[in-house]
Design a protein that fits this description.
It is built from eight helices and no strands. The chain is mostly helical. The protein folds into two domains: 70 residues, no CATH class; 76 residues.
């Protein structure tokens, strides 16, 4: 799989990564997922964020997206929602993904902005509220607004 991987390999690698307990194998799989620049990889990673059985590695999936240069075009709303739900580390990975400057659709941007604006931040730490504010400001900049 390492030399001739396809997008079909990604779910298998993610399943293995989520249950692997051997450091050497975990490192090897992680290295493959950090460098999956193949057709369909972005879609496979976004799809994995919807998989409940992979919930324990959703932060890593966001990291894999960022490291591969994926911006989540067409999925910004889902990425924003999941990144914020994952709290601090998820928000940090989300902000990294948003730096990729994807060409997001109006619908994608509005879905993400709507989620951020309606998110109840009462349970967030001070640092997480600052990250949420930064996500909101970046989304506004995408829309052509400055706050």
């Amino acid at each position: 799989m390492k030399d001739s991987g396809t997008a079909e390999c990604i779910p298998i690698l993610l399943d293995f990564y989520s249950i692997c307990e051997q450091d050497e194998q975990l490192i090897e799989v992680r290295e493959m997922l950090l460098a999956m620049r193949i057709p369909g990889a972005e879609q496979a990673l976004v799809h994995a964020l919807k998989q409940a059985h992979l919930k324990n590695i959703h932060i890593e999936i966001l990291e894999f997206m960022w490291s591969n240069g994926f911006a989540g075009v067409g999925h910004l709303g889902k990425l924003v929602q999941r990144g914020i739900e994952l709290r601090m580390n998820g928000m940090i990975e989300l902000l990294s993904i948003m730096e990729q400057d994807g060409e997001y659709t109006d619908e994608d941007q509005l879905e993400a902005l709507s989620f951020v604006q309606s998110f109840d931040s009462a349970g967030l730490s001070r640092e997480e509220r600052l990250l949420l504010k930064e996500i909101h400001e970046r989304l506004l900049r995408l829309r052509g607004f400055e706050e």
